[in-house]
Amino acid sequence: MIIKTDQIARELERPSNPKDALIITPTPDLAKLQTSGAASIDIRLGCWFLVCRQSRVGVFNVYDRPEEVPSEAKLTKSHYVPFGEEFILHPRAFVLGTTLEWIRLPADRAAYVIGRSSWGRYGLIIATATGVHPGFTGCITLELSNVGEIPITVKPGTAICQLFIHELTKGDPKLVDRSRFIGRRKPALRPIELDETARRLGKWLP
């Protein structure tokens, strides 16, 4: 079940379980959340971006042995854009960004983040991996892509996406999100981990 903004405001202001609370920092405008009647809250663009380098890597092959996979430093370059400055996303460009907000989900809450239609109509895609699991803590990574025909300017602090929060039927109070991206403030790449079945089907064994 999707939680409406008035309930989100109540949970942010007076959590029923302070040891396992919903946290969004900076805190949204609670008065606005209580009266908007919406099903999502606006989330803002952060200051860090991870841009793909022009490199000599011919192809990214997830089936290569771990020691053969190019490093993050070889594939990408990190950029910090201060508030008030702009970042230009060119057509067919792809960069990683983050949310300005630091978010913590309790054990009985999950979420997903999607773009805002006002930006999407100009060709800006915000995220492809949109799910946020119970127990997540950190800034959410955004996969920014311009599928339009003209460059798009974005600035940190802009409300660029929206977060829908769901209530789980039964949460595990001992749950800890063990994602490799937990607790991060900057966007990052990580090796893609194949399960045993995928490795065997790919005829590659370590």
How would you characterize the overall build of this protein?
The protein has 206 residues and is of the alpha+beta class. It has one domain: Deoxyuridine 5'-Triphosphate Nucleotidohydrolase, Chain A. The protein is built from five helices and eleven strands; from the N terminus they run αβαβαββββαβββββα. Strands 1, 2, 3, 5, 6, 7, 8, 9 and 11 form a nine-stranded antiparallel β-sheet that branches. Strands 4-10 form a two-stranded antiparallel sheet. Helix 1 packs antiparallel against helix 2. The longest helix has 9 residues.
The CATH class turns out to be: Mainly Beta
Strand residue percentage:
25-35%
| DSSP E strands, number | 11
**Major pleated sheet:** 9 strands, antiparallel
3D shape: globular
Helix-strand pattern:
HEHEHEEEEHEEEEEH
The radius of gyration computed from the alpha-carbon positions, rounded to a whole number of angstroms, is 19 Å
Helix run count: 5
Instruction: Give the tally of structural domains.
Output: 1
Q: In the CATH scheme, what's the topology name?
A: Deoxyuridine 5'-Triphosphate Nucleotidohydrolase, Chain A
User: What separation lies between the terminal Cα atoms?
Assistant: 42 Å
Structural class: alpha+beta
Spans of 5+ residues with little confidence (pLDDT < 50)? none
CATH architecture, by name, is Distorted Sandwich
Quaternary state of this entry equals single chain
A few lines on this structure:
The protein has 206 residues and is α+β, with helices and mostly antiparallel strands.
What are the SSEs and their pairings?
Layout: H1 5-13, E1 23-25, H2 30-36, E2 41-52, H3 72-75, E3 76-80, E4 87-89, E5 94-104, E6 109-115, H4 117-120, E7 124-125, E8 131-132, E9 137-146, E10 152-154, E11 159-167, H5 196-201
Antiparallel strand pairs: 1-5, 2-3, 2-5, 2-11, 4-10, 5-9, 6-8, 6-11, 7-9
Helix pairs in contact: 1-2
